[in-house]
Each structure stands twice: as structure tokens, then as C-alpha cells.
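thought: user wants a sequence for this fold. calling inverse folding tool.
action: design(structure=
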């Protein structure tokens, strides 16, 4: 249970008309779906690999350009295997140092689809070049963690040992590149093993957005979400809470949908309206609007979806320039919550020192 007295909303009286805008992305390339395509098909379906190549070759650079143009310090939750540029089997076994999850829907060895090759041969399984690009991007982007191999932490097939090995491996790989991981995003948003995250120095993790449709299950849930997005209903502010594990949980507010599947019938304009409404509400209530997306979601209808995102970011940066909105990464928000006990926002009178201190840690 969360300590309700330490929520962000409880402090909103200290910061009138000052909201926060966060963008977080799940970057996983092939790892995001490697356990999902048919058990009898070892090869990735052709359309999926095309989507992932478009993501790699076009979408990621375009997103970094947008974030630079609109000064957005986004959080990129990256699968740890993408920190590599190659890997090879040892005595016929891929990643022998990694214990395997026993997810009921995946009967093979967890790494059986890992090509155990190089970034040149199989670019959708490796991403060291992408991590380096994100590291040098301006303004400074936050590199977060999305597990090493997209193991589902909240599933019973993921033991404590597996979860710890996944996190430990990511922390070590990040350290090699001089990155300190502070923010975690659970694969498929299925939470578990939180105490491991605090053991390895994480500050915060992402949780599912609050929404009227969450009480529904299965198809009704999907349909309600679709309706919610079609009508561009105003998203809730993120709930930011200090958890007993010592970590801050930061929920999402809205998801920037792909234009494939049912997403085809949601006009880009609805995504834009929803984003702007979310920012507006964050400002009105001194809350947090947290937009999340998968880069692959922009691999179909790339130009149109980038255009929509650009309009949301344009609105955010204008509000930021007017002094009404803080543009923060997940880690920056958590750091400010941690160091500035009263309020994380830098322009609240009397709290500038704490805010600068937070800036120094996260940058
Ligand atoms: Zn590998």
C-alpha cells in the first residue's frame, strides 16, 4: 500500500499553476515480442521485422530530433540486450550467465530466438549505437531500464533469481557506458520484485495509468480504452507515490497509440487533443501529465504520427516558456520528490536550492 500522505497531489497547494510533463518510451525492438510469435515459427513474421527496422532506421532519430527541438528530457526505458553490439553462444548456450524464466506461454529456452550474432547482421536485436545516440542527445535524455531480455516480472514464471539477474545485468552494462540507471519500466507493465529495484539503486518505476476503463476486463477494457481515445477524453494526472519499497511509483496518464490494428480508426487529431487536455489539466491542478509510447508505434504512418506528437510537444514547450509547466524525465521528478520534501518544482519560491541539487544529480 502506498503512503497516501506523501503523494504529489497532497503537496499541490505549494505550487499553484505549475504542472509537470513527462514523456517515457519503451525501447525494446525485437525483444518486446520475441516470446509472442508462434511457438512453431522460429523466424520473426515479416511485417514485424519491417516495423522494427523502420523504428530503428527512422523513428528513433526523428523522436530525438523532436525532443531536441522542444527541449524534452525524455525517459528511454531500454531493454538491456540492446546495450550490446554482439553476443555469442558459450558451449552452445546463449547467455549462460542468465537464469531463464518459465513463462507458461513460452516452452523453448528463453534465448532461443536471440540470433547470437552482431548488430550488423541482426540490427533489431542489438542497439549499442542507439544507446550512445540517446546518451549524447540534447537536452540530456534519461536512459532507464526495461529489464535485460523483456522477462515478465509480474508473472509467476519470473522467480526472484531471474528478476535479480535481469536487473543486475542491466546495471552492469549501463555502468560500462557510464550510465546510472534510476528509472524502471516493467515489461508489459506487469509489476513484480520491486525490492530488487531499490537494492540496485533505482529511484522510481512506472505504473499503469489510472482510468475509468481499468475496472473492466478483457474485451470490454479494450473497447472502453478505444472509446476513451476516440473521444479524446481528458486523461487523469499521473499518481506519484512513495512506496514501502522506498521507490517512487509514477503512473502514466496517456498512451500515444499506433496507427495499426484498432489504432487505425483513432484520428491523429484525437491523440493531439488528448495530449493537450492532459497538459492543461496538469497545469490547472499542479499535477503531472505522463505521456508514454513505444517507438515502434510510430513505424506505421510515421509522418502523420510524428506530426501529432510534434503538436503536443509544441504546446508543452509554450506552456513551459510561459512558466506554467516543468519538462522533466521520470528520474528527475523522483529525484526532486526525494530531495525537496515539500515540492519538486524548481520555481516554487523557497525551493530553488533543492531543485538545483536535484538537477545536479540527474542533469
Ligand atoms: Zn544475446
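)
observation: tool returned 363 residues.
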Amino acid at each position: 500500500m502506498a503512503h497516501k500522505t506523501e503523494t504529489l497531489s497532497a503537496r499541490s497547494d505549494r505550487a499553484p499553476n505549475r504542472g509537470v510533463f513527462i514523456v517515457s518510451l519503451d525501447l525494446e525492438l525485437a525483444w518486446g515480442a520475441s516470446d509472442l510469435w508462434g511457438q512453431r515459427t522460429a523466424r520473426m513474421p515479416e511485417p514485424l521485422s519491417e516495423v522494427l527496422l523502420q523504428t530503428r532506421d527512422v523513428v528513433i532519430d526523428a523522436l530525438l530530433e523532436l525532443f531536441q527541438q522542444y527541449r524534452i528530457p525524455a525517459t528511454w526505458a531500454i531493454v538491456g540486450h540492446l546495450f550490446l553490439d554482439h553476443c555469442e553462444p558459450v558451449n552452445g548456450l546463449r547467455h549462460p550467465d542468465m537464469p531463464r524464466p518459465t513463462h507458461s506461454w513460452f516452452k523453448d529456452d528463453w534465448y532461443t530466438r536471440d540470433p547470437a550474432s552482431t548488430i550488423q547482421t541482426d540490427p533489431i536485436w542489438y542497439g549499442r549505437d542507439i544507446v550512445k545516440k540517446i546518451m549524447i542527445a540534447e537536452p540530456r535524455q534519461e536512459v532507464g531500464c526495461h529489464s535485460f531480455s523483456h522477462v515478465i516480472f509480474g508473472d509467476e514464471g519470473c522467480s526472484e533469481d531471474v528478476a535479480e539477474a535481469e536487473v543486475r545485468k542491466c546495471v552492469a552494462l549501463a555502468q560500462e557506458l557510464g550510465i546510472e540507471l534510476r528509472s524502471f519500466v516493467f515489461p508489459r507493465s506487469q509489476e513484480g520484485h520491486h525490492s530488487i529495484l531499490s537494492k540496485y539503486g533505482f529511484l522510481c518505476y512506472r505504473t499503469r495509468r489510472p482510468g475509468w476503463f481499468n475496472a473492466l476486463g478483457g474485451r470490454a477494457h479494450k473497447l472502453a480504452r478505444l472509446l476513451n481515445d476516440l473521444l479524446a477524453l481528458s486523461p487523469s494526472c499521473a499518481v506519484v507515490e512513495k512506496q514501502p519499497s522506498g521507490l517512487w511509483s509514477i503512473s502514466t496518464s496517456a498512451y500515444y497509440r499506433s496507427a495499426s490494428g484498432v489504432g487505425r480508426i483513432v484520428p491523429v487529431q484525437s491523440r493531439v487533443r488528448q495530449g493537450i487536455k492532459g497538459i492543461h489539466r496538469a497545469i490547472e491542478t499542479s499535477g503531472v501529465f505522463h505521456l508514454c509510447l513505444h517507438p515502434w508505434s510510430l513505424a506505421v504512418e510515421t509522418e502523420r504520427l510524428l506530426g501529432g506528437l510534434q503538436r503536443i510537444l509544441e504546446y508543452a514547450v509554450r506552456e513551459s516558456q510561459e512558466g506554467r509547466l516543468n519538462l522533466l524525465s521520470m528520474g528527475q521528478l523522483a529525484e526532486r520528490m526525494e530531495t525537496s520534501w515539500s515540492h519538486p518544482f524548481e520555481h516554487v519560491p523557497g525551493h530553488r536550492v533543492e531543485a538545483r541539487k536535484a538537477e545536479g544529480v540527474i542533469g
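thought: summarizing for user.
answer: Here is the designed sequence. The chain has nine helices and ten strands.
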